[in-house]
Write a structure and sequence with these properties.
It is a single chain. The longest helix is centred in the C-terminal third of the chain and has 23 residues. The chain has 321 residues and is α/β, with parallel strands linked by helices. Helix 6 runs antiparallel to helix 7, helix 7 crosses helix 10 and helix 8 crosses helix 10. The radius of gyration is 18 Å and the shape is globular. The strands form three sheets. It has a seven-stranded mixed sheet. Strands 10-11-12-13-14 form a five-stranded mixed sheet. It has one domain: Ribonuclease Z/Hydroxyacylglutathione hydrolase-like (Metallo-beta-lactamase, Chain A). Bound molecules: zinc ion. Zinc ion binds next to loops.
Length: 321
């Protein structure tokens, strides 16, 4: 899809800087090789902790847990990388099936191989909003793209609707997985998946690395929700937690702090200029992201436009700060 074609583009630019920051240090048991880039390209499997693997190159990041109680995937890559991802997963699992597939959100870079894993019997877990987006035709204006309903086998089979701060727990052998809603952040159906004993959190698009976050306001994302989501992830993690973003290299909790600082600063500046009637182009020219551009990548203009769009579309400017 266009958003993630953009994302892959800027991730390619981010290559080589994946481990340039302090965010890549201080995680016990990890080697620097675990912080490789995801996106398109050769599919690679990078061991994180104790049978939990980050698969890169399939579109969005994919996590595979080979635990004593079953096999779990988080996200299923892009449609164009489905065959490669399925081949890699099959090579790792042999005859063992994927028992549970989590979708962190609806974007096709994260649900591309759903149909295959669904037909093979995987339980597909997601937020109900993700199932709804995948079930219907809709138009995403900032991409100028219409999405068609996905095949029935690709749809989540087990969804939840609550934004209750209390996570949902799934005990699988040697792992306890907790997951829950990150309300209206990157989309309106974002979830985190926390492998509690391994201390690894898959965040989906609510966390971005090497690029500005994508705020898909057409399906319910906005900057205030992204700030709340990031804070929620900070609150549940510690200094040893591995944070796996929707795309890009794994991070430490420090990166979440940096994301909160960036989005709260940019949100305030954009909102101030919106109240003065300024356009997105004028905000870009005013340098509302200036000190963050080096670390967050080249999708600046799209980011500013979507911060604006999310505040404008959903009537959240007044009283939102
Ligand atoms: Zn996404």
């Amino acid at each position: 899809m266009a958003a993630h074609e953009d994302r892959r583009g800027f991730l390619r630019l981010a290559l080589g800087t994946a481990c340039a920051s302090a965010a890549c240090t201080g995680l016990g048991g990890l080697t620097r090789s675990a912080f490789a880039q995801s996106g398109s390209g050769p599919i690679a499997a990078l061991a994180l902790r104790d049978g939990l693997t980050q698969i890169t190159g399939a579109g969005g990041n994919v996590l595979l847990l080979q635990g004593t109680g079953g096999t779990v995937l988080v996200d299923s890559g892009s449609p164009e990388n489905a065959a490669g991802l399925i081949g890699r997963v099959t090579a790792m699992l042999g005859d063992a099936p994927v028992d549970v597939l989590f979708n962190t959100h609806w974007h096709t870079a994260h649900t591309g191989a759903n149909e295959t894993f669904g037909r093979q019997g995987a339980k597909i877990v997601a937020h109900e909003n993700t199932r709804l987006w995948m079930s219907t035709e809709y138009y995403v204006d900032w991409q100028d793209r219409t999405y068609e309903p996905r095949p029935a086998a690709a749809l989540p089979t087990e969804t939840f609707f609550s934004s209750d701060p209390q996570p949902i727990a799934l005990d699988l052998g040697d792992e306890r997985i907790e997951y829950g809603h990150l309300r209206e952040a990157h989309t309106d159906g974002d979830i985190y998946v926390f492998f509690l004993k391994r201390n690894v959190i898959a965040t989906g698009g609510a966390v971005s690395a090497g690029a500005y976050p994508v705020l898909d306001y057409a399906t319910g994302g906005w900057i205030g929700g992204l700030m709340d989501a990031t804070q929620k992830l900070i609150d549940m993690s510690d200094s040893d937690t591995i944070i796996v973003p929707g795309a890009g290299p794994a991070q430490s909790r420090d990166h979440l702090e940096e994301q909160v600082e960036m989005i709260s600063t940019v949100r305030e500046r954009v909102a101030t200029l919106m109240r003065q009637g300024k356009s997105v182009e004028e905000m870009v020219a005013a340098g509302v992201t200036a000190e963050f551009d080096a670390a967050w990548g080249h999708n600046r203009d799209r980011f500013i436009a979507n911060v604006y769009g999310g505040l404008w579309w959903q009537g959240r400017l007044d009283g939102s700060l």
